[in-house]
């Protein structure tokens, strides 16, 4: 079976006794289409000659992609299914289409060692992308694109008391509170601590170790990242190096042809967290600001979803927006059909293949799964893994805001390149409505 899935074999993912495969994006896409009842997914997208586009590449970083030394699997400290195999394809897509984009924004998840989302601090996630740690560096395929004149880098998640999956500020209080787990953002007053930020020293934004005055920690240890080992990786030590926040004007052209559409394409890791929240937050603010002819599109070929080994996250699962820490309760075996994707259980082979367990196999494994409480627990003979987020939840949220998921590569050949000043514009003023009724006009920014 190919990575995208073979139409006449795709059903075997859920109907046969044991399926082994190294690429499960076909499995994911099958359920994405199956549960899409409102037209969120699309196979094609119309782009006119005078339309414009920007691209956001979310968190293509080592901790989500590479194997820590000495650890054969899972890939990365915070596993995202098939992120490594997707990286070179994304690189080629950007190289082939770079001149078509007004802006290409790369984001970097960057956490202090005492971040509220970490299991070491009472949160649900394994420590990852710690300040000035090699795991927080961009993947080499993305670093190869650093000389593109329209590329930029922003940082997010730097405050210890607030989580920010999204690279754009959470201005919707209800959604902000919904996406804060563990002890993050107590009181719900952390909106200004979320979203992406530029570095004051832009010359360091691509560096593996971008912050000065902090120890440079190489990615040489496969153990859980503990506070005692990284004492100076704190927000207090980098706060003076954090610059202005990422804004709509950083990604939407100040000038566009009258009647043209600007598309913000978003891709990267992970599709159900950082990609999703970036899309949601942008879409909400664009709508609130009264901007017209701007759409948000997820590039599914270059997006992968959180697929976490249970040993590394204490059996954390989600069902109907409720955290289930006791996976022995039947989340993988007693859920009625139609089962969403997070109710399927896999094992990961030493060769990187994925085996989908049948319902009976999941029931037989329940006692082992229920014993998984701590990260790096090696007492279980098999490595169990599962997707975290129900597809239905993603589709419901996207449908409400008109966000689309493009299942195939976008065809940008009809668009005029923005490089070299070849596009002529009739000036269109974009006025943004704020909650206090004032208006702002986007101004073009000069790249230094």
From TrEMBL:
**InterPro entries to which the protein is assigned, alphabetical:** Isochorismatase-like_dom (IPR000868), Isochorismatase-like_sf (IPR036380), Isochorismatase_Nicotinamidase (IPR052347)
What Enzyme Commission number does this protein have? 3.5.1.19
Q: Where is the composition biased (Basic residues)?
A: 421-448
The species this protein was found in? viral metagenome
Q: Where is this region: Disordered?
A: 420-448
> Which ranges does the record mark as transmembrane?
none
Q: Name one GO biological process term.
A: pyridine nucleotide biosynthetic process
Protein name as it appears in the record: nicotinamidase
EC class? hydrolase
GO MF entries? metal ion binding; nicotinamidase activity
Instruction: Tell me which UniProt keywords the record has, alphabetically.
Output: Hydrolase, Metal-binding, Pyridine nucleotide biosynthesis
Pathway field:
Cofactor biosynthesis; nicotinate biosynthesis; nicotinate from nicotinamide: step 1/1
Residue intervals of the Isochorismatase-like domain: 55-165
The UniProt family comment states: Belongs to the isochorismatase family.
């Amino acid at each position: 079976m190919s990575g995208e899935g073979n139409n006449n074999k795709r059903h075997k993912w859920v109907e046969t006794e044991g399926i082994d495969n190294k690429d499960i994006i076909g499995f994911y896409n099958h359920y994405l289409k199956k549960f899409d009842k409102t037209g969120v997914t699309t196979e094609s997208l119309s782009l006119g000659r005078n339309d414009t586009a920007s691209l956001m590449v979310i968190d293509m970083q080592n901790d989500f992609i590479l194997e820590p030394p000495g650890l054969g699997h899972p890939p990365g400290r915070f596993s995202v299914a098939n992120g490594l195999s997707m990286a070179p394809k994304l690189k080629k897509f950007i190289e082939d289409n770079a001149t078509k984009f007004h802006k290409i924004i790369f984001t970097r998840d960057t956490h202090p060692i005492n971040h509220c989302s970490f299991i070491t601090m009472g949160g649900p996630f394994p420590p990852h992308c710690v300040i000035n740690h090699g795991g927080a560096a961009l993947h080499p395929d993305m670093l190869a694109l650093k000389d593109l004149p329209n590329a930029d880098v922003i940082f997010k998640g730097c405050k210890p008391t607030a989580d920010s999956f999204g690279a754009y500020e959470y201005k919707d209080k209800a959604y902000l509170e919904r996406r804060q787990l563990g002890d993050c953002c107590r009181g719900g007053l952390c909106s200004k601590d979320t979203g992406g930020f530029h570095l004051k020293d832009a010359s360091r934004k691509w560096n593996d170790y971008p912050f000065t005055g902090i120890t440079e920690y190489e990615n040489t240890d496969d153990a859980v990242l503990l506070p005692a080992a990284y004492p100076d990786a704190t927000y207090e030590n980098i706060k003076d190096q954090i610059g202005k926040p990422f804004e709509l004007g950083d990604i939407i052209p100040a000038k566009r042809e009258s009647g043209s559409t600007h598309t913000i394409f978003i891709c990267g890791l992970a599709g159900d967290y950082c990609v999703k929240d970036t899309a949601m937050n942008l879409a909400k603010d664009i709508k609130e600001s009264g901007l017209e002819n701007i759409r948000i599109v997820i590039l599914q070929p270059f997006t992968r979803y959180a697929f976490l080994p249970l040993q590394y996250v204490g059996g954390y699962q989600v069902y109907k927006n409720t955290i289930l820490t006791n996976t022995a309760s039947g989340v993988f075996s007693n859920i009625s059909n139609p089962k969403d994707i997070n109710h399927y259980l896999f094992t990961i082979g030493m060769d990187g293949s994925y085996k989908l367990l049948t319902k009976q196999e999941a029931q037989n494994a329940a006692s082992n799964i229920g014993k998984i409480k701590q990260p790096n627990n090696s007492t279980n003979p098999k490595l169990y893994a599962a997707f975290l987020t129900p597809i239905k939840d993603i589709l419901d949220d996207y449908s409400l805001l008109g966000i689309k998921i493009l299942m195939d590569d976008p065809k940008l050949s009809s668009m005029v390149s923005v490089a070299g000043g070849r596009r002529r514009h009739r000036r269109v003023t974009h006025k943004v409505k704020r909650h206090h009724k004032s208006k702002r006009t986007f101004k073009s920014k000069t790249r230094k």
